[in-house]
Amino acid sequence: xxxxxxxxxxxxxxxxAVSKITAEAENGSFCLLPNHVDxxxxxxxxxxxxxxxxxxxxxLAVDEGILVKCGSEVLVSVRNAVRxxxxxxxxxxVEQEFLSLDEREQMTRNALAKLEASFIHGFLEVGGxx
Length: 130
Known about the structure:
By secondary structure, the protein is α+β, with helices and mostly antiparallel strands. It has one helix at residues 87-128, and strands at 2-7, 12-25, 28-32, 39-43, 46-52, 57-62, 65-70, 73-78, 81-84.
């Protein structure tokens, strides 16, 4: 068995014993088993699949990140990940998550644009008084 920890910037998403991990790197997908050699891999956005200690297949949609295997411990650090037990449910969840992220990103961009416009307006007013 291996101990898989999936770390997000704000939480530990997964911390459990697994028997197999399949992930995607820039040069293709790879599979880790408990006796696999230690290594580090840069992950690309895609699927990370693992088999739980009970034999259940679990899917994660992951953003880019890094995977480090050292002994029986596997650490995966990504910006964002979504867990699912089947691909259809995961697809729907990912679409909702990304839609939500897109909306928040748009709101942030709008707020930033207003802040920049206000700053420029204030700067021009100060410049015109000299």
